[in-house]
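This part of the workshop introduces the protein records we will be handling. An example says more than a description, so a record of this kind follows.
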Amino acid sequence: MNWKFWQNDDQKKLLEKIEKLTEKVNSMEEKINDLDKSEKKMNRLQYKQNQDLFKKIDELSQLVDQQSLDQELISKLKSRVDSYSLNVENSSRKIIELIDEFDLLKRGLDSDENSWSSLLKNWSQRLLKLLEQNDIYQLKLKEKEFDPRQAEALTTVNSEALTEYPQQQVSNYKNNQIVEVIKRGYQDQEENILRKSQVVVYKEAK
C-alpha cells in the first residue's frame, strides 16, 4: 500500500473511517453468505439498479489522485459492496446498516470535501431505491413536527444552539419541530414503523 498520498491528519482520519467501513461490510458479507441460495434472486430492475451502483463505485477510483485515497482500499470496498448488493432482495436490514455507515462517514467529512460527500449521498440514494423495491421506505421527518410514534428525540436545541447546525435552511423553527435527522427511520408500504428515526428537536427556551 502506497502511503505517500497521505499528507495531513485529516486525510489519515478519512482513511481510518473508510477502513472501519470496509471491516463492517466484510463482517456483514459473512452473514449474507449464510442466506439460502433461493433467497438471493433479483428481478431485472434490481439488477439494473445494482449495475448503476457499481458504476458509481467505479467512478470513485478515478478520484484517487484528487481525493488522496488509496487505490487498493477502494478496490476492497468496491468488492465488498458488489458482493453485498447481489443479495438485495432479502437483505433489507443489511442495506439499512450500510446506509447508516455511509451517513456516519458523510457526517464526519469536512465542508471542503464536497465531492466525497456528494458521492456518498449518491450511493445512499441508490440503496434507498433498492429498499423501495422491497416496499421499505425511509421516513422523511426533517422540519416536521416531532411525533414519538415515528421518531426518538436524541436531544433538543434552542435558538442559541442552532449555530451548531449551520446547514439548516430554516432560521425560525417552531417548538417541537425536527431540526436534524441523525439516523434514518423506515416504514413499510402500509406505514407500519420498521425503525424509528433518531432526531434533534427544537425546543423554545423558557
